[in-house]
Specification:
The protein is mainly β. Among the domains are: 65 residues; 79 residues, SH3 type barrels (Roll); 80 residues, Roll (SH3 type barrels), CATH 2.30.30.40; 85 residues, SH3 type barrels, CATH 2.30.30.40. The protein has 4 helices and 37 strands. Strand 32 and strand 33 form a beta hairpin. The chain is globular. The two termini are 14 Å apart.
Amino acid sequence: MIKRILSVFAAAVLIALCCLPAFCEEEETEYPAASCKTKADGITTIYVIKQKEEDYICEEKFLPSGTALTFAYEEKDPQIISDSGFEPGGKYYAYVEAEIGTGYVCTDDIVPDEEVFSGKSFLNSYQDTYVADAAKGVEIRKGPSRMYDTVAVIPQGETFTVSEFDSNLNNPYYGYVNYGGKEGWVYVYDFDLDHAVCYKVDSASYFAGKAQVISTGVYLADIRRDDGTKYLRLSDDIPLGTTLKYDKYCYLDATNVAAYTEYNGTKGWLTFSVGTQDTSPGHVLPYVYDIAYIGSDSEIYSKRGDILSGTGKAIPAGTLVNLQAFYLEADSTVYRWWLNVEYGGKNVWITADDSSSSAIGSGMYALAYVSGDSIGMYDSLDLSSGISKTLYYGERLSLFASIHSKGLYWYYVNTPGGPGIVRQSDLITLYASSKRHALRMNEDGETVMGVSEVLEDPGVETTAPAEEDETEEAKEKKDFPLTKVLIGAGAAVIIAAAVAVSAVTTVKKNKKED
């Protein structure tokens, strides 16, 4: 009988220990892939992607009707198809996984397994407002792909707001909308393609809706038509110094923007670059709502682009100012940015180049927490000054500017204990970001740093000690994966003990009845 009890106990312990890894696993976010299949009315072409030495090529193969596929994302005219000698034909293709391999299938040739998309989406931390700019309007679909049916069309010129985005990290091009009671998904990132959707300039926009021509050779164009070089010219050259206003814009690629404006009765698109790594000559100066961190004393200049117009006055290091406009110095062999900032109640010009430690804000600010044991915070960009404060695991940060100085990258941050500077590191994890302007005006008219209430806190516990020396309790909290293991092990022992006690009780009861 004792052997039976021990065997039952051992089995209980074994079962509990087998369950322990699952009990102790960290929760991970899963992004479900959408299932689909080829249409039932014929053979479907798939361009299977294969690796040949160091390059990738695609091979044309065929799938029978009803073939099961797993959808990842879609794009228009994938470059690899044309590079392999095939003609994409100006269509959208879904990148899918099939039994014969992974590749591209035209979205016109596939249908979803489910009528309505049932995957996850993530809440947009800011409400982006768009304008339907295509003549045929913008389609709202049942799911985040062109393989889903259209439920409604947003007419040209109408505005709409995106509240969520597709959670598939490979396909973040679809935004969730509710327009006129019709809900669904809209493709909002056309880049250098159809430009069917534009951002609408508003108080939360990165751009302020105003730009100034600062060089010759600038004209309005039609970004949807090609005149043999790039875009079809619509106007004469716009004179140097002309200021133009606009209320909508779209991205042509990752750094180039087209804003819809009017000059001398002609309407068209004004193009300019906003890339901080773009060293081509600047022609248009965009006015922005943004911030700049002054990392070192920065001289004030009376004329834009004139390095000899210094006033002898400077903005002190450590100052955070509103950035009104910026541009890369035209026809310069020096990587030099000119920043127009608000300081002392006036708009003044300063410069930022490779040797400078001024920083152009990114057009957004982010909330983060320390995800390593600890990280040092400095009062200045001078490492020799030493760490002014230590931030521990879980402590919250608001990031307002990214700084490059003397080969090092930094973040200007705000903490509950005050502002400072930290090195960019994987010891800091972002958990939310917003395009809303980071600087706010308080009731007294003073410029202060703001934090958006709509950004959700991850709920990570901090290990910051109450006193300067780290406590034993803090050390235990930092090692929370080990704590989970101990809790799981304890649970396993309790389960095993309960089973053993139950077995003993049963044996005693049977013995008594006998």
